[in-house]
Every structure is written in C-alpha cells, then in structure tokens.
Specification:
A five-stranded mixed β-sheet has the order 6-8-9-11-10. A four-stranded antiparallel β-sheet has the order 1-2-3-4. Strands 5-7 form a two-stranded antiparallel ribbon. It is built from eight helices and eleven strands. The relative contact order is 0.08. The protein is α+β, with helices and mostly antiparallel strands. Helix 6 runs antiparallel to helix 8 (291-301). It is globular, with a radius of gyration of 26 Å. The chain binds adenosine-5'-diphosphate. Residues 225, 229-230, 233, 257, 259-262, 270, 275-277, 282, 287-293, 316 line the site of adenosine-5'-diphosphate.
Amino acid sequence: MEDFQRLREVQRGYDSVKVLLRYPAPGFKFPDGNPFPLKNLPGRRAIQGEAEPRETVRYVNKQTGEAAWNILKSTAIFDHEQKPYLVITVMQDITQLKELEQRKDMFISMASHELKTPVTSLLGFIQVLQKRFQQRDDEQSLQFLSIMDGQLKKLTKLINDLLDISKMQTGQLTYNEEYFDLNELVRETVCNLRAATRSHQLLLEDEVQAQVLGDKDRLGQVLINLITNAIKYSPQADKVMLSISIDAGEAVVRVHDFGIGIAEAHRQRIFERFYQVGDPLERTFPGLGIGLYISSEIIKRHGGKIWVESKRGDGSTFSFTVPLHDLHG
Ligand code: ADP
C-alpha cells in the first residue's frame, strides 16, 4: 500500500517536472518590462540543482489588462537516482505591496521636489545677507549666517540623495560619461574633504594612474559617501586610509576605517535602500540609510563591484572597482 502511494506520488511528481519542461511561462515579465526567459523559471532552476531559486515577476492579465506582481519560489525533490520527480512552486501575490511601494516612491519624489525649491531660495538669500553684513563688518551675524549655510547644505545633500533615489527607481538618473584618471578624482575628493574634516586625518596610501570611462561627479559622490561614512562610524579613531590599485583590468579603490565595524548579519544588507544597522550603538548616528544604496547603484552602472570587509568593533574596509579604459589600447 505504502509502495503504491509512493508510486502515485512519484508519477504525479514526474508530471510536474514534465509540464515545467514542456510549456512556456504564461506571459511573465521581469519588473523592468523585459520578457522573462524560460530558463529563469525558478522551477527549472530547481531541477538543475539550484537551492531555493526565486524570482520576482510581473504579468498582465490579457482579458482585464490588470497587472499583477508575483514572487515565485521553487523546490525540487529528487529520487534515489538523483532524478527530479517533483517540483513545488509557491507563487505569492505581492501586487498590493508593490502598489504601496510605488506610492511611497511617488511620495518621496514629490516631497523632495517640493523641499528643494524653498531650500534653494534660502541659500540664495543667505548670500545676499552675507554681502550686506560684510559691508557692515558685522562679524557675529556673519558667523550665524555661516552656520545656517552649513546646515542648509546638509539639508540640500539629504534632499539630493532622496531625488537621486527616486530617479534611480524610475531609471531617470542621467550619467555624463567622459574619460578621466580615477586617481586624480580620488586625490581631488580627499583634498576637498580634508579642508572640512578636523577629527580625522585622511591618508592616501597607494596611488596609481587609472584611466576610466564614467561619470566623474557620480563616482565622486561614491567616494564622498564612503569617506564621510568612514569618518562618521569611527568616532574614537583619528584616521581614515585610502588606496587605489589595479587588479585584473580594473581600478580598485579602498576606504579603510578603524571604527565600530559591521556585524556579518548586516554586511550584505547595508547596500539595500533605507537599511541601517539598528542596534543601540548605531542608533546614535544620524542618516537615512541611502548613501550606500546610491553608491552601489552608481558602481553597478559603471560595470564595477562594491563590497565591504569588516569585523564588529574592528573597523571596516569598503572597496569598489571600475573597469579600466586604455585610450591607446
Ligand atoms: P546612513 O549612514 O545614512 O545610515 P548608508 O547607506 O551610508 O546610510 O549606510 C547604511 C548603514 O551601513 C549605516 O546606517 C551603518 O549602519 C552602516 N555603515 C556604513 N558605513 C559604515 C562604516 N564605515 N562603518 C560601520 N558601519 C557603516
């Protein structure tokens, strides 16, 4: 009896495997709108031996025109000859969650646009007032204005980060590419940040010429994010070390700090949108948890990689690569 039941299970299982291999996916698309290749179906990948494959897809009901979002997760069960005899696929409808996320993105985009106009106007009037107080030699008012200016610049950076995030979500962030020496950019950025950093020494250890093709301002933004984080998350330390080297046709930039470090559990997730390490030690640091997300999107767009090596309590090293572009090669 038991054998009979097992035989039926196995037969049913083989059916699911056969069906999966025979029929095309029903009009799924990737979230970016590209058609979904059959080989990416988690069920097929599970048959190939991939552990717990998953995929987020979007599809449109041809009759109603309604779009739905699904997460597909599959597991394959293999018989004693290591042949797949059953594939279980769980489809989770996340359409409502996606709609909420899109509303939140829309809100962030509108809020950051609305905030930008008054802040720009305040910055403009601060300049006018600075000129007036300079004429009157009013040192104290000039000092207050300089504090206001500094705070407004911080606010502008936050608003710009939020605007960048919204543009990234909709693929509207533009990149102005040019050939330049990444080493020069690292030097310039370090030099500019040195002027504004009293607590830490910024040491540029190894240098090498590295001709790349990319958006200088955006890569500069990545460097600023990594260096300011290195300073922010190492309040007890007094230096941050940087280096640039070449490895396998890529420029590798490293930013090393001697700060609080990052526990293993958080190391991958800190590159996600709005992710912050939420333990009591971390809560004292201000921020929105978007700098690393923006940085990793910029690096990916340049065909590079970004990662962190760290130990809790023992500092962190953030590294990123950008492919080299030899103008003469
Ligand atoms: P923010 O610093 O605004 O919170 P980021 O996206 O720049 O956002 O960083 C995400 C999280 O990663 C931070 O909240 C922090 O917990 C962690 N982190 C980033 N850089 C470092 C660092 N150099 N040392 C320790 N933790 C870091």
